[in-house]
TrEMBL record:
Main location: membrane
Gene Ontology, cellular component aspect: plasma membrane
Protein topology in the membrane: Multi-pass membrane protein
UniProt keyword terms in alphabetical order: Cell membrane, G-protein coupled receptor, Membrane, Olfaction, Receptor, Sensory transduction, Transducer, Transmembrane, Transmembrane helix
Keyword Repeat: no
Localization, UniProt: Cell membrane
Keyword Repeat: no
Name of the protein: Olfactory receptor
An example Gene Ontology molecular-function term: G protein-coupled receptor activity
Transmembrane feature ranges: 26-48, 60-82, 94-120, 132-156, 177-202, 208-229, 241-261, 273-292
Family classification: Belongs to the G-protein coupled receptor 1 family.
Organism: Trichechus manatus latirostris
The G-protein coupled receptors family 1 profile domain, residue ranges: 41-290
Length: 309
């Protein structure tokens, strides 16, 4: 069937995790738990920050954006995954596949940019505390947050537009449980040189450049913390950025494994597991990482959850 986007395929078949009914039941329970945990945890964070004046600071403003990103990112992937596990609906329409690719790429790119903005915020707070209010102003926060969403949206629009120009021929089976750029390019029977060039450019900007900026920020932070004489002062300074550093480490570990090492046999075999980490597990764990050692957030959560102790 030929359409305006010159494709001969009207749908794709996603490769699931297992055909074993018992294992599918276990996976359904696991992914449903992670999804509900991500929705509840991040939803509570957004509510707590919105309703608590003490949390109306740049750090928690960025944190709220991260929570929203986690909600929409996991909602892009997990519901379709649950559908395939429960009702064996492994097919996804051509338009649905491109839509999933668009939103997944948008939200993952925005998260990398947001982590860089959060690293800058922590750098100013620890290395230049006396100038923090003047440097990290609300207009700057709004500008950074807008740039995070808009720049990533522009990038994913380019990738999705280029993908829509490709011809896809049989077989139409995607060797993954989601639609992403590398797996779709494997099914194309059109030249993909331009797509590959744009992927390299995006990888350099979103992955390499942002990783270097984040690393530079934390290099300065660590150097500043080491110069603090008081052990209590060092502990307080480290506690303000330890949660973010853990999220950054987790995020870039999956990015490096997925994109920089994707050509190796090991990365291809474990690509599904890594995808689960950045689409479901991290979204569920991020609220816990940010709240376990944060007294302000825990206090705000107690106010919005009457049943908590």
């Amino acid at each position: 069937m030929a359409t305006d986007n010159h494709t001969t395929i009207v749908d794709f078949v996603l490769q699931g995790f297992s055909e074993d009914p018992r294992l599918r039941g276990l996976l359904t329970a696991l992914f449903l738990f992670l999804y509900l945990m991500a929705l509840a945890g991040n939803g509570l964070i957004v509510t707590a920050v919105s309703l608590s004046p003490v949390l109306h600071t740049p750090m928690y403003f960025f944190f709220t954006n991260l929570a929203v990103l986690d909600i929409v990112c996991t909602s892009t992937i997990v519901p379709k995954l649950l559908e395939s596990l429960v009702v064996f609906a492994d097919n996804i329409s051509y338009g649905g596949c491109l839509a999933q690719l668009f939103f997944l790429t948008w939200f993952l790119g925005a998260e990398l940019l947001l982590l860089t903005a959060m690293a800058f915020d922590r750098y100013v707070a620890i290395c230049r505390p006396l100038c923090y209010g003047a440097i990290v102003s609300w207009p700057l926060c709004a500008l950074l947050a807008s740039a995070v969403w808009i720049v990533s949206a522009i990038s994913t629009s380019v990738h999705t537009g280029l993908m829509a120009q490709l011809n896809f021929c049989s077989p139409n089976r995607i060797r993954h449980f989601l639609c992403e750029i590398p797996t779709l390019l494997l099914l194309s029977c059109s030249p993909t040189a331009l797509n590959s060039i744009m992927i390299i450019i995006a990888d350099v900007y979103f992955d390499v450049v942002n990783f270097l900026l984040t690393s530079a920020s934390y290099g300065c932070i660590v150097a500043s913390i080491l110069r603090i004489c008081s052990a209590v002062g060092k502990s307080c300074a480290f506690s303000t950025c330890s949660s973010h550093l853990l999220v950054v480490t987790s995020c870039y570990s999956t990015v490096i494994y997925t994109y920089i090492l994707r050509g190796s046999g090991a990365s291809m075999e474990n690509s599904k597991l890594v995808a689960v980490l950045y689409t479901a597990v991290s979204s569920a764990l991020n609220p816990l990482i940010y709240t376990l050692r944060n007294k302000d957030v825990k206090a705000a959560l107690r106010k919005v959850t009457p049943f908590s102790q």
